[in-house]
Each structure stands twice: as C-alpha cells, then as structure tokens.
Amino acid sequence: MDSLLLVTKTNSDKKNVAEAYAQLSSIYTNRANYDSATLFLNKSFEIYNTLKEERKIIDCYLQFGIIESYRGDYPHSANYLLRCLLYAEKYKDTTVLYAVCINLTSVYSALEEYNKANYYLSKINLNDLGKDINLKVNYLGNKGQIEFELGNYSLALKNLEEGISLFDINTPDLNLIQLLILTGDCAVKLNENSKANQHYSNALSLAKMGIFPVQLAHIYYGLAKVNKLNDPGLSLSFAKKSIGLAVKYEVLDLIADNHKLMSDVYAAQGNDKLALSEYKLYDVAMDSVYSMDAKESISLLEANYEVAKSTNELEKLTLINEKNNLEKSTYLLIAIATFLVVIILIYSLRKRNALNIKLNKSNNVKDKLLSIIAHDLKSPLHNIITVLNEIDQNTFTKEDQTKIIKDLTSQTDVTLETLENLLKWGQAQLKGVNVNVLNFELKHEVDKNVDLFQAQLFSKQISIEINIPSDLTVKYDKDHFDFIIRNLLANAIKFSYSGSKIIIDAETIEDSKVKLNIRDNGIGIPYTYSDTIFQPSPKVRLGTNNEKGSGLALSLCKEFSEANGSVIGFDSKESQGTCFYLIIKK
C-alpha cells in the first residue's frame, strides 16, 4: 500500500496513477473497508474518464458493482454490472461477460430472484473458463448457493465440494472460507454432522489466519449447530463466541439465530429460566430484523425498478440495432402521432398528476404507519400480554415478578413514546407543520422537560448538569421546542451508560443566535448510521439497556427545526459519546 500511494504522489504518467488507485481499491475491498475502496476507485475512474479509456472505465464499473454487492446494496450493484454487460455484448468481450454474469448471479441470488440468477449463470460455459481458477470457483460457488436456496442440498454439496477442490486448503482465502461455511450448512441440512464439522473446522482454521470476523461469527454458529445434541456445553460456548462477533459487526439475523439455538439447548437441559431469558433476547433480536426489513422494503422496490429499467434499456438498444433498416418516415409518423396524443391529454394529465401526488403521499404515510405498528408496536404489546398471563398463572417467583414488572413498565413507556411520535409524524405528513412563534425563557423550558425524565434518570443512575443563563430568551414554537428537547434528551438517556452524566448548556453565537447543546458520554453513533439519522427510515440501534424505538422522532425533530428557521445537528464519536445541538434565534 505504501508503494502504491507513493506512485500516486510521484508518478507523472496518469495511467500508472489510475492503476495504482485501482489496486488500492482492490486491497481495501479485500479488507472489507468499502468506504476507502470506493474513494480510491472514484479517483481511478475520474482519471480513466478524462483519458477516455473505455475498457478501463468498464473495469471500474465492474469493481463498483462488486463493492456495492459486498456492501449488501444489490440493486445498485446490478445497475453497475448491467452497464458492463452492455459493453461486453457490444464488443463480444468474453472476459468481461463471464465476470459480469458471475457477479450478477451472486446479486440476484442475494435478492432471492433465482430465475434471473440461473439465467445469467447459464450464459457461462464452465469449459470455456480454462485455467481461470477465480471464475471457476465463483461459478461453482454460485451454482451451489442457488441449489442450496432451492433446497437441492445434495446437488449444492457436489458443486461446492468441487469448488473447494480447486483451492490449496491451507490458503486463508475469503472465497474458500465462504465455500467451506456453505458446504458445512449443506451437510447439516443432509444430517451429515461429521462432514459438516470437518468443513466448519477447516473454515475456522483459515479464518483465524486472516482478518475475517464476520465469517468467524458464521463458523462459530455452524459449530454450535453441529454440537447441539452431542455436546451441549461446547455448543453453548460456540454460540456465545458467535454472538460476540455478530453484535460487534451488527449481523442482526445471526444474533437472533444464536439466541434461539441457546434457548433450545437450555430447554433440552431442563433449565427453563435460562431458556426463557435467551428466548426473550431472540425475540428482541427478531424485532430488530423485522424493523430493518420494513425500512428497506420501500427502497428495495425503488431499486428493483432501477434494475428493471436498466434491463429494459439493454433490450431497447438491442431492438434499435435490429430495426435500423426501417424507414425514417415511420418514426416521423409515430412522433407526430405521439405529439398529437400528448397535446390532447396534457390538460387532463395535469389535473390527474396533482391528485396522484396527494394520493401517493397519503399511501406512503399509511404504509409507513402500518409497517411501524406491525413491527414496533405489535410485538412489544404481544410480549407484555404474554408475560402478564404467565404472572397470572403464578409461574414466576415473587422476585422474578418484581423484576419482570419493572421491565414491562419500561417497555410500556417506550411503546407509548413510539405511538406518540408516530401520531405526530403522521399528522405532520398529512396536514403539514404549523408554527406559532413565542418568546420564552430557555432555562425554564429546559428544566420543565428534564423533570419529565426523573424516573428514567433514576433507573439508570444518570445525572444531569444544566448550564444555561436564567435571563436567556429565545423565539420558537413552544410545542415544537418541547418535542425536540424531549426526544434529544430521551436519546441521550437511552444511549448513555448507567452512572454517567448528561450536560445541557447554551451559548450565544453571532450575537442574535443561541446554540443549545445536549452532550452524553454514551455509545456514540457509528459512521455508517450518521447519514440516516434524520431520515424517516433511519438505521435503528438498541440502547445500553436494550431500549428500542422506531427512529421516527429525529426525522420529525428536523422537520420542526426547519419550520422554525433553526438548525439541528450532531457531533459524535463511536464509544465516546454524542452531542446534539439546536441553533435558534434569540
């Protein structure tokens, strides 16, 4: 890497510099540092685009597609890859064609569109791959993945083991590790636990030689499954290791799977208390998975549309090439006819478009409300009812009941908070935001809102320090201000550690403005979450005591802030804390 960076700074040949950036991108891709990989690939792309190096531009598109696939953004990955496909079919470049088809197969497999995945895989003749081991491995791995998802485990196992045979089994290669994990999964499905254990163990040895923490989490889970019946103690040990890595790298479905497995093991041992505890953790993890799915559903539909549009563009270009012998007069007549139809319809379409915009907005709000009610309200309320029924049947000791009632109270408060935010958000979306500006004392209003959180502060042993001049007044809609402060303070408490301190202070800036800060020393906001914080569908994290929320509140805080002519923002360092601020007029 140092040598490549030196090339980018000292070499005068732009092609060499662009190639160095491309190689740096590949290194960071292999290290799973996709932000840095994209940064260097963009630099390479800009140079090649300036030099009009079409073949190298296509290589960049291919790498962009691979990076987006690794990120999990499969629809955008498909868009990049389809551009490469157009080039490959135009110039009959089989090298690019096979590489693109392999990656499109992976993308559509991840999107569970196995017919499309098989279509692109069928474009490749395995015998034509020659000595290209990487393409052969990817071909066999994708074939095995598709057959596995379709339930054809024996055929999947055959393809995967053939792919493994192409490797040096002692090489810590990411593709080999992933093949071994999937082969182990196939063996488990076929009840061949001895073979599964062998593949997982080989994968474990290789993963420990490299930097593959996410794969290690999957391997430990596989070993936990294999040892579930024969050695429950060992199975629990592997599951705990898997959870540790899955939590660190936010692999939500794997967290849920491990807690479910541990619950089953404890139940088989007769330890009902631990079995129930693990099942509750499984339930919480599944809520997070469902919430994530709900937020991704709309963007996935939109992105699938983009993929379909790109495919249609390919078909359209092919059709134009096939029909280039048609008379120009035919196209002219079609254009004239189309123009006349547009003139006739334009008046009615204007009215319909205005109505459709309102209807679409209303439908989007309705869908969002139903989605959150289904996943953020239904599940906790169902949990509350279930536990209350169990308490009524005297299945818990008095001490357990006291703890459970305390937990239920906390969960009910969160559910009510979510419902309140949900109703305010829906009202703002459908009726708009009305602003009633008043002058009021900032410290008095902040003190009043802090008093509402005394129970939560006492529960987590969190102290609050308020440093605001008593004579400082501001202009703002008081209801909007109260809503923003309550939610910023609730978040600070939610993501603060027990026994820590929250500081609220204010300072005058630019003579006519006040900056109000709410600082905590909690878990902070990861870089990957920061871009979605104020969006209607942000990434959602659990609090330090596993507190949950829908994530709608900050989106509404931003709407209220903008309506009042103020600025809301934050500064954060992961594991060191967060400071949310509000800049308002004096």
Molecular structure report:
This protein is α+β, with helices and mostly antiparallel strands. Among the domains are: 84 residues; 153 residues, Heat Shock Protein 90 (2-Layer Sandwich), CATH 3.30.565.10. The chain is 71% helix and 8% strand. The chain contains 22 helices and seven strands. The protein has a five-stranded mixed sheet. A two-stranded antiparallel ribbon has the order 1-3. A hairpin with a 3-residue loop joins strand 4 and strand 5. The relative contact order is 0.04.
Could you list some keywords that capture this structure?
586 residues, alpha+beta, Heat Shock Protein 90, 5-stranded mixed β-sheet, globular
So, CATH architecture of the domain at 433-585? 2-Layer Sandwich
Proportion of strand residues: 5-15%
CATH topology annotation of the domain at 433-585: Heat Shock Protein 90
- Ends apart, CA distance between termini: 52 Å
Report low-confidence residues grouped into runs of 5 or more. Answer: 294-302
The shape is globular
Evaluate the radius of gyration.
Answer: 29 Å
- Report the CATH C-level class of the domain at 433-585: Alpha Beta
Question: Using DSSP, what is the number of strands?
Answer: 7
Biggest beta sheet attributes: 5 strands, mixed
